[in-house]
Amino acid sequence: QEKSCHLSAALLGEDSEISQEQLYELLKYAALGKCHDAAQPSWCRIYHQSHLAGVVVVVLHEMSQLHFYRFYLQFKHLRRVFQHRFTLAPSANFPVSLYGEGTNLKPQNTPQGLTSTSSECITKNSDLQCDPIIQRYGAKKQGLTSYTLTLEEQEKHGYPIEGSPRSKGYISTECDQQRTDSSPLFGLDCEMCVTAKGNEVARVALVDARGQCLLNELVKPESRVLNYCTRFSGVTKKMLLPVKTRLSDIQTRLKKMLPHDAVLVGHSLNFDLQALEMIHPSVIDTSLLFARSEGRRFKLKFLAKAVLGKEIQCEQKLGHDPTEDARAALELAQFFIEQGPTKVAELNLEMLLTAEKLSEPSQNKAALQSQGCGFQEQLNEPPPLSKPCFLDGLQVTGQKPLLLGRQGLDSSGLCQSNLSTSNKQILQRALEDVPLSKFSIIQFTLGPEYLASHLHAGLYEKVRSKLTDMLTIYAGPFEENFCMKSVKKEFGRCGPIQSLTVVTETFQPYVCIQYQVLEAAQLAVESLNGAEVAGSCIKVQRPVTAAMLDCNVLIEELELDVENEGVIYVAGLKNSLTETDLQEEFSQLKDLETLFLPKDLQSGKHRNCCFLKFQKTQSAVDALEAINGWTMKGSELRSRNALAPGHLWRWIWQMNHSNGKQGKHIFYEKMEQLSNSEQDLRKKVKKLDHHIKKLYRSLQNNTLCVVLFPGVN
């Protein structure tokens, strides 16, 4: 249908991990849309949101990516229907942040309609010790150096660090002089657009301590632009057409402008420095400076209004003004330093944020007073607050979201809660109630007996062991004095090698090769079995173990996975080739949408392979035929259909570098118990997949359905 609602999310490889906040961006915009001032998600796009029939979130309680891949064949419906799949970055108290504290909450008769808990710290003028700002910085006023992030804090919050593999190739500002409390402050802000490379700078602004603009420049991205993000960046295709300035020009200018003891100030400045590909040792991040509990952060727009009394990022403007944002962040830091933590805590920002939400057009001042409480009275006598959850933000619609699950989930008053005792009962209630609700959360669980820690450790070791076997091949037999270098070169053409060892227990030598990606191992089996390598006609095979008996079935299913549709794997690339080189080389391929050149997550170096995603499946088939046998810069290319999406190979890498942290002794001690319970677990998962299938088929057209494996953390 021309006006059907649909989702666009073309993330590949390293971009396939999303944060809890990014997930909430998607759910919030889907639920509220433009009429409630919700913004399009930053990482994907929903088209024709007004045609959305509803939002359904299925939560598989305490199940994780581990369960999905251990029971990949059992999740038949889930993997065939859901075409967008992302790793959800770990976060504390995920269920609490989604739908509230739990059964200990009781609704309070407050004007806000919020809930309270006895354990919540309430900030009052007479008692500030529970305020996160006081807990972090103390009550006394200090100099600016007390508020700069330590190296550990920078690393924790994703700042580029000197010597870090992820910052390889980044430029240092070379501002290495000792900082003092009189060091100069500079406000920095960038606006980004989405390119084939990821997020790239499209505009950059720098202001000095007096707020004077030193730099406000448009920047031409290196890669092809996929989304100008005009709503936020204010940058359009037309604006960038005449621009000649490149990232390297901006890096050079910033290095010249900043004195050696400069302190950079920004709001979530880590993203700006990453996009600039620059390292700066001394930063103040206002999103962390104005501390909140549970790792949450205030938005810059709110802080500017609440602290400085300034309106920024106005709806009437086309996108954000980076100079305005840089100046606002700078002035916020100056206010904090000059006034001190106590004065900032006394502003009671959490209460102001609640009041601001209540004063939105749907609930004006008159409405508040009719409930028996004036606006000023609320500020003076704040009611108890619960820890905010995602569902708080949906209350503006006037509809209560539907929450279905087992007992012990929610009685906070935020939802229409229907508590059931079995997954079958939950499904029956969902089939009846979901069509009547615009936003529903359905939680299924395997039961506590299947989620015990020792079973989890055993599952982890089984999956790790199986994936390692799938990445491993044995080749041989070779002559006694065979050339190992020739073997490594030939098998290296199939993809990046993790390890290569000679097997000496056999009559003639064999070689054991472990690859870093599944496609490489499969390509070696398909192309080198029966080939002549190092002067010998060899056989190439995977290890023969009980767990590997269904390997071919698993490979076939992975290849047919909807997520790998239109994606091919190309190996044999020279390490010297850049993404720009490859874009040029592959530009003749029809309907090429995205090129992803994976990096080694430890060294940061490019691997000798890449993934190509095509808009049409047939174009991918044609590209496979064209590429096999291609010679690029003197190197012969090999290719096949993709098997493992980005989040899977990243996860494989993490597993292979975990050094047995899951505790193998637990695994062996509990193996018998695991084997007995895993048969039941397979049946449970298969039934769970069937429940999801029935629920999915009952949904109206244009319903956004999200299935979460939140794990235990």
TrEMBL record:
One of its GO terms (cellular component) is nucleus. It comes from Copsychus sechellarum. Coiled coil: none annotated. Keywords: Exonuclease, Hydrolase, Nuclease, RNA-binding. The keyword DNA-binding does not apply. This is REXO5 exonuclease. Residues 471-545, 566-644 form the RRM domain. One of its GO terms (molecular function) is exonuclease activity. SMART domains: EXOIII (SM00479), RRM (SM00360).
